[in-house]
């Protein structure tokens, strides 16, 4: 009787669902040879589908969700449906409801012995038809998630089987709320603040946490050789979504508890932090599934309305990839999960895809089921079908992770410093197994790089914090101290608050360690989401006369001066001091008479020159102040230089070269009277070492004359090598942050200053060669990292916007070139295309002299000796470091 009622309700819903409006057109097209996409079924036969699988008879099993953020006026079944479509009937596949009793159902996987495995938001369960009537009548819980969070799609999902018969599944970041996973054998795992990948037996026993540091691994697959991959959604402020190679003991860098800011010292997205693993390659927006094909992977993109093939290539102990789009659709093509039909195993391959159709997150009654066919005889783009044997590095890493091979501690420490991040991580896992035998006295004798790795290995081994952390917090190495602070913050070890405060108040603390200590302090004080930008906390330290001047300076540096909300089109972002920061306070800080603090005061004033111009001009002409401060103040006037022409002309004759040349830079590209031109010519004779900057004012076109092609790196190197004298790194720093010339900080962050549009360049010099830096400036679009590829949106009213895509649903959201967030209703957008042109202005070199270009390269290439190292503490370069 119950099943009859379910069928009747389903029939009523099917008949009453209104589709009077025009059908949303998916606008799909195949864009590679051998690819065919055909519609199998659509609304009202299924709605908002997620999980999907295909059985041995070719029947397609799919989840139709009716409970996902269900609107009050939604007319549909009370629970989600598990539907079966018999695709052997080509014209009109028969549809039946197998089960109708779950909520927030995110995935489906067919299992052994007739069991159907489901992932709800808060449990993994299996259902079965035991009486042969075509509907499930038995339900068993396998893994239960207990948490106060209840958002439907950041809990459990991502079901897959590994070759050994274990069930693999994913867990999202769960809004950073604490959670407990419990299996059928009462085994439990507890955590918070991060997503992960787990496995258990087919009956819910032997729970194991495979990998951590994820946002939301909604799609997971395991190849026949055991290699595991996850299609990982991104957290908005840290695009792009990522394809991950998942390994046991893997750490992928993300922590939700630290808030939404794009920068945090304990969070990374592409293996930038020591001990973390990079992505294989960016994916399209909001991937929900991933499946193997030959040596590559098929990944549908919900937000980019497409299906991609990522052709994998071995890279050390992991993989890189090249992305090939095979299907494109319009705004009403939103593929979610994907499943292969193994009944087609020759050169004619078949997959089925669920399609959410509409960009609304809530249940909306629309849905489609597609059949994807690939003729391998035509699809040369697929490449070889056989899997390659593991590389030596991959085999060694696997053996180290599993414990199948042993190495002495010294060898493991060396391997932990490998430039291959997967090999380095495997060595850390192996070191963690040996860590119980270490003593603080032993570790103190190790080189500082090895001591930093020891902190990570001990953390992995769940060593006693009380035994180790006080020792590490007083270590002479900033890298060791950083790792100790990271351990304390991630674990929320409040008993170490006094020690963290002691680090934070050191008079000789460097900036990177200050960031880490500030983030740890906020965490232990119960405000982890404050990250580094809590204005009240920072202002309190800025005002604190008892704090060391350096601590006050670093706190001032972190205060935001630019709104993240987008302003008027075509205008630079509005800059203003945060409430509580005033000119009077800045003057009080100058009166402390500390050079480092004074520099930060001037830089803060330069962030808002419209208000602080008088203060800047006073410092610029004060000959009793150090030249470094005066030069910084002059550079800070660049945005308002037209109002200070006479003063700048007088400063162009200053006896201090740094002051003189900053004044000359401010005069560049401005109009000069005949009298001013004569003055400048005389200055060129008086100061021949500055003549190139004066020529750039008098004849701006000379900056382009006689220069090699941007692609001729050898000729450019020769040009730079002809410049007399050593490079001026401080001049390069001012050019990097200059409001009119370098403008690098409009997009890039360096040592806490600048925007987060492109990558943080603080430690770029630790990884990049001079030639690489030079070519990145000369031809920024030549080798653009995929995660920093801009998108161009053309609106229906003709306006065009370019930015890094943050989100795509019923609205499109981008971060523009000034670091501000712009949001558009999807109905406003005419088209979205990838741009092959970097945000970095191609004509940058035409605004700089050869000497200035040399100084800028020297600044970027100097490295940051105070920055916590990138993996072995500094040598390993991450997979995709954009410009």
Provide a descriptive summary of the structure in words.
Among the domains are: 2-382, TolB, C-terminal domain (Neuraminidase); 790-834, SH3 type barrels. The protein is built from 24 helices and 35 strands. With 883 residues, the chain is of the alpha+beta class.
Write the layout of secondary structure elements.
Layout lengths: L1 H15 L12 E2 L4 E8 L6 E6 L4 E6 L15 E7 L7 E9 L2 E6 L5 E5 L2 E6 L9 E9 L9 E6 L5 E5 L7 E4 L5 E4 L3 E6 L7 E7 L1 E7 L5 E6 L8 E5 L3 E2 L29 E2 L8 E3 L2 E6 L4 E10 L2 E11 L6 E6 L7 E8 L12 E8 L16 H11 L6 H7 L5 H14 L5 H5 L3 H13 L4 H9 L4 H14 L5 H8 L6 H14 L10 H9 L5 H10 L24 H8 L4 H12 L2 H13 L5 H10 L8 H7 L5 H11 L6 H13 L4 H8 L14 H9 L7 H8 L12 E2 L2 E2 L15 H9 L12 E5 L4 E9 L2 E5 L5 E5 L3 E6 L15 H12 L22
Helix pairs in contact: 2-4, 3-4, 4-6, 6-8, 7-8, 8-10, 9-10, 11-12, 12-14, 13-14, 14-16, 15-16, 16-18, 17-18, 19-20, 22-24
Low-confidence stretches: 1-22, 865-883
What is the radius of gyration computed over CA atoms, rounded to a whole number of angstroms?
A: 30 Å
Percent helix: 25-40%
Strand order of the largest sheet: 7-8-9-10-13-14
Describe the sheet with the most strands. Answer: 6 strands, antiparallel
| Counted beta strands | 35
- Mean pLDDT, to the nearest integer, reads 90
| Total DSSP helices | 24
Tell me the overall shape: globular
Judged by helices, strands and strand pairing, the structural class is: alpha+beta
Termini separation: 65 Å
Beta-strand residue fraction: 15-25%
Task: Indicate the CATH architecture of one domain.
Answer: 6 Propeller
* Fourth CATH level, the homologous superfamily of one domain: TolB, C-terminal domain
> Do you know the CATH topology of one domain?
Neuraminidase
Report the CATH C-level class of one domain: Mainly Beta
